[in-house]
Amino acid sequence: MQNTPNLPIILLDAPGAQRAALWGLQDLFALVPRLDPTCTPLDVRILAPDALPQEPVAAFVFAPSIEGTRPVPDHPLIAWAVQQHAQGALACSVCAGAFWLGQAGLLSKRPATTHWALEEEFRQCFPDVRLAPEHILVDDHDVITAGGLMAWTDLGLHLTGRWYGAEMVSRLARHLLVDPGGREQRAYSTFAPPRQHGDAAVLLAQRHMDQQFGTALTVPVLATVAGLSERSFVRRFTAATGTPPASYLQALRVEKARGALERSQASIAQIAWDVGYRDVPAFARAFKSITGLTPGAYRSRFRTPMS
After folding, report:
1. Contact in structure between 222 and 233 (CB atoms under 8 Å)
2. pLDDT in tens, 115-126
3. SS3 of 203, please?
4. For residue 19, which phi and psi values (nearest 5 degrees)?
5. Helix (H, G, I), strand (E, B) or coil at 143
6. Which residues contact 127 (CB under 8 A, 6 or more apart)?
7. Among 56, 58, 64, 166, residue whose Cα is nearest residue 113
8. How many CB atoms lie within 10 A of CB 301?
9. At what angle do helices 245-263 and 219-226 cross, to 10 degrees?
10. Gap between the Cα atoms of 164 and 39, Å rounded
11. 125-139 pLDDT tens trace
12. DSSP structure class, residue 215
């Protein structure tokens, strides 16, 4: 089932960006409709900082950079990335591209990855990021980071899964002679609600839920964040996202729990608490209703060896 965005995907030709990654991603996405003419082509653009659109985009990617090239705080790309993410764009990076997302504040208190050789420098620059350099890709819902220089292939396959489904990932991987195994395929059916619905009040609530998913998020609390009455909030939120607030929050919390089960050594009870459940059996029921697996079975199947 396709879930292709109808807005542009911007591959950022930032200072020092490696052209191989930019062109490689563009070529990878262009292969999809060639493999299956029924697939809707993506509008993928490689753009320099002075050619960036101000209208909303679906996603943007900071590619690996030439060794030693780092963003400066006042670079125009920083403000552009912050604005686009605030409007609902999916923010992505590969390798040292994570420094751009870090500089923009988009990784604050989030899990992320980058090249293992950059771990010490990255931690010094952004100590509040939950860095996991042992992972080749970390999907944190509206921000995705990939690790090594060639991890643009992992990011490309991952996004293909989001937008075209797991079957196309397999076809594309076979065509490219790339092994998709171990590339966190569980996220091909990840919870990815719409953010470019045009309702600014609802987007405020979504962003609040992203950041405070572990706290008590009742309709009155979210309606206050959105600046709406409770009745208007529920109506507009459901219309914009296609999901009622309670179901949305459950799916979001389960998605966060999946990542924690894969990447951390925390107990299931601790993870349940961290994502907002005070009753472990209730958490287990919600988790199984969405994933088809108990938390323990999910961890056994998807936990990475270094977790």
Report:
1. yes
2. 988 988 999 999
3. helix
4. -65, -30
5. strand
6. none
7. 64
8. 12
9. 100
10. 8
11. 999 999 988 788 999
12. S
